[in-house]
Design goal:
5-stranded mixed β-sheet, mainly beta, 4-stranded mixed β-sheet, single chain, about 200 residues, 14 strands, about 0% helix
Amino acid sequence: TVLFMSIVSTAFADSYTVTIVNVTEMEGDDITFQVQLDKPLDGADSPLVIGWTTANGTANGTDYTGGSGNISFTTGDTVISLPAITTSEDTDLENDETFTVTLSLTSCAGGGGCSIASWVGNPATGTIENDDYDIQISAASEQIESTSPYAFTVQTVPAMTGSKTISITYDVIDGTATTAGNDYTDQSGALTFSTGNSSYTIN
């Protein structure tokens, strides 16, 4: 009796987890997203081509240069940066603005056809931080003397966001009311505006 045995080689398709994270930059600076695989690309899967495209959020075409395209992972790659997205510098008093970048699988050269097991952070958000602020001061038009302290409100417009800070100094000076006439108590100082501290009261 003669037995014959054949061995069949089966290729199992690789799968990858693709991660993209949110990015925040000041207006006028480039925003660059990084795309990362959970493991180095296998040679049999090279190239793995990922497509990307931007979409407006509160930001539009006057705030950044949108686009679309592909990035290609080759053997051993784990991280690739998308092309830098330019943002526009302006002098508008505005809130921070956002847009999104969405990834998709374009192609994979693997013999069995690799796949994306999961997308993490997709779509990602690009945040364009405002860097233009107005300092405004307000107070009641008049107040009866010897009553509660005369309050001045000093605030930024818009409210502060991100890691930015603005520092100013102030000094109360005579008008028709004078310190010499004991109409008010002189004072001066400094104020620092930051996220969560966009308004101060000076009494």
